[in-house]
Amino acid sequence: MQGNLPPEAQEKVEELEDLQETAQKVSMQKQQAETQLTETETALEELENIEPGTTMYREVGELLVETEYDEAQTELEDKADTLEVRVQTLEKQENRVREQFEELQQELQELLSGGAGGMGGGPPSPDGV
Length: 129
What we know:
Blueprint: H1 7-48, E1 56-60, E2 63-67, H2 69-113
Antiparallel strand pairs: 1-2
Subunit structure: Heterohexamer of two alpha and four beta subunits.
Family: Belongs to the prefoldin subunit beta family.
Main location: cytoplasm
């Protein structure tokens, strides 16, 4: 069907496809950030059950490096704060992309139905003029 579309409608379809791809990427990034945030919050909860003098290790690449309780707690809290901001930012981006997608979908629908006589036009008058 796309081959039979007017050029303006074809352009809108391509924009919709691009937005859909963007929405999927943002959704995946948000899901990854939410997973990391959950893991970080779980680590912070577990840290509350550990005595402050306990020998602890953190992962640095392929190595485990000894770390202090306070340092581990600070790093985890900072990471949680950063991830919370990241998730909120991605939610906003996800909403913006969704709104753009819906607007573009509406514009395409109007183009295909011949409704508004193109972009930016108002509704047709009752007498067709």
